[in-house]
Every structure is written in C-alpha cells, then in structure tokens.
Amino acid sequence: MARKFLIDGNWLVCSEGTCMQRIQVNSQSTIYAHGKLVATMNDRMDGNFYCLKMVTAGALVGALVGAVIAAGAILTGGAAIGGIVAAIGSGALVGSISGKLLSLMPCICACLTKPNRWTMVKDTVLLQNQKALMPDAKLNCLLGGMVSIILPQIEIVLDALALSNCAYNVDNEDSPRYKDNAEIPNGWTEIKDLEKEFGDEIAAVLINNQNGFKAKLFKNGDIYILAFAGTELKDDEGNFNHKDAVTDGKQAFGLDDKEDGQYANAVSLSNTICSKIEEDNEKGENKKLIITGHSLGGGLATIGGAATGADTYTFNAAGVHNQTFQDQEVNAENTQHIQAYYSDKDPLNIAQNHRNILMALLASSKCGFLSFLGSGIFLTNSLPQVAGQRIGLETDCSLLSGHSLMESKLKEALMAEQKNTPDIQVYTEYE
C-alpha cells in the first residue's frame, strides 16, 4: 500500500494568513527522501503567514494609544475633537504597522503552533523516535488559524493560468484586438457551442454584452476548464468599456446586481456546466471541471468554485464580498479548496491583504474624501481579502506590472517552483 510522507520544502498555508510558507525540517537530520529531510510531527513552518489577526490586534492597540494621546492633548488645550479622530486613525495605522512588524519576527507562527499537534501522523513510522507527518495533516494556531499542507499540481495550474489569459481572446477576426489573442496551450480546444457539446439546451451564457461578463470553456480529453475574463477597458471591438470597472467598484462594496450582475452570471454558468458534467458521469463518463480566472475573473471563478465545489485556481484575484456570496446564495465557507495564486507585487492583493493598514491610513487623512473612503471600507467591510488558500509567490516584476497576469511573471515563478519542488518530493513508501 502506498503511503505519502512530507519532506522539507513542501507548501503550507494558513486559513488566517496572507501568504504561503514551507515545511522546515529541524526535528531530525539523518533520514532523507530524494535529497530532502523527511518531516515529522515536530516540524513547523519556515516563515510567518502574516496573520491579519496580528495586524488587527496591533491596530486596536495603536488606536487606543492614539486616543489617549489625543485626550492628553485636549487637557493641555492643544487639540480639538477632530484631532481625536485623526489621532485614533493614525494610532491605528501605527498599530497596524506594528502588528505587521510583529509578524516579521523570527517565525512567530511556529511559536503559536508549537503547543498544538498535527492531526495526521503515521504511528508506525518513526523517524528518530518521532512520528512521520502525513499529507492530510492539519495544525491549529493559538490565534484560531488552521495550517494545511498543499501538494500542488503545478502542470495543471500552469494550464489554468494560460487559459485564464486566453479568456481575454476575441472571436472577431476583424477586431483590432484579434492580433493580441493568446495562444491556446497544446492539447486544449475551445468549446464555443455549449448546446452542441452537452447535447441539451443551455440557458447560461458565456458572454453577456449588457454587463460585460465574458467566459470561455476549454477541453482536453475529459477535463474541462472554465475560464473567466477579468477587467477589460476595451470591448471586443476595441471600444472603451466601463462595464467591468463598474462591476469591480460595486462588488468591492457588495453591491453587484443580484439578478443580472456578472457574479450572478458566473454562478449560473458554473452550476450549469457542472450539472451537465455530473449527468454525463452518471452515464459512465469520467469528466472533470476546473474553474479559473484572473483579476475580476478570479473573483468570478471564486464564487463559481464555491458554488460547485470544482477545483479552482485564481490568479491575482479580486476578493468577493460576503454580501455577494449571500446574494447568490453561495456558502462563503466553501472556498478552502480554492488555490489563490498572486504576485507579491500585485497592488490589488497587497491592498486586500493589508486592508486594515489602508483603512487606517485613509481614515486618518486630512482629506475629507479619503477619510470618508476609509470609514466606508470599515463600515461596509469592503475590499475583501481573496478567498481560498492564499499562495503568494515572489515574482520578478514591478508594482506597475504586478497585477497583470503575464507581466507579473506568475508563470515564471510557478515554473521555478515546478523545477525546484517537483512531484517526486513527496516520498512514497510501500508496505
């Protein structure tokens, strides 16, 4: 019977964190697999997940300190009520930054998980008298987060990334954008006629010109990939397009159209294709659906993946507001299977991952509009963090290109991971 064990360098994510870390094997130094030390129950992560709870705690402390300072200024006649608000906002900002700095200490996450035990270990396999760690193991943090192990299928992730780029392609050969179409990866073909593919009438649409919604379906053998297009400032004919930007702005505050918005279209299309595939599988087929998307398309893929439970890969995705999940009657908790890849230079995910700092900075601004915006983010829980397993990758790009799917160099970062951490790093023992 084949049993898989973990080794040094395998990926870890935390349900409360903002980035990926790796297993660091310090518990034993003699047992190797494929040149890597095999992990045991006493091993932890090599870095911090930058938990938002740390940042929030720091912000609250900073806000209180700021309030006390402001109160002291009032007693000495040096501040007005407006100064109190500014002090609280500035204090929150300082506290948020302090919380961030706290998370940069030598692996505080390892300390916070040390009192707890991994849930899945192999009792019969001892490595220097320590139980071997299993791939399905979970580890609780004292702050409430849960650490999980990821064994990524990088080959299919790379296909999903490439097809997310193809989702922007235009069909009209006379369009000025046609020459910029991305090449579909080898082995994949685009399915343009859903009714012909599934042999039935399909009410859901791949394109909705009224709201700017756009998706494409691809097939390779029995595997389907549904890819959602992200924000486009030009339509397929090359004309200025404001519809995606409107969706971005409205959805960030949970205001996307409940019935006719892009997120409603994404849920309808995902559910329809998933149902058709399940019907075929009941007849003896072995088909599989994967959902993907970039930017706005990543947000659409997130809610589609949550609605269907299909394997989902997002790239530099927009976070989905809780109100959007509620409006579409989709369980926001059904996102733990989603792998959310993002560049560490992506301004959108930097803002989403550090919304507490951004919120405090805006709220404490002397500019009325910015202060109002910061308060609005807080009161409406806007600018939500991307859902799923957040996998931040170091990419060789600038902040200006960090949100772009291809210019962010996410593909190159994934290929480097594939080279440095191939599948053989999962040690298999036969009993």
Automatic annotation (TrEMBL):
Keyword field: Membrane, Transmembrane, Transmembrane helix
Write down the Gene3D superfamilies for this protein, in alphabetical order.
alpha/beta hydrolase
Supply the InterPro entries for this chain.
Answer: AB_hydrolase_fold (IPR029058), DUF4280 (IPR025460)
Q: Which domain of life is it from?
A: Bacteria
Transmembrane stretches, by residue range? 50-75, 81-112
| Pfam families hit by this protein | DUF4280, Phospholipase-like
What is the name attached to this protein's record?
DUF4280 domain-containing protein
Give the classification, highest ranks.
Answer: Bacteria, Pseudomonadati, Bacteroidota, Bacteroidia, Bacteroidales
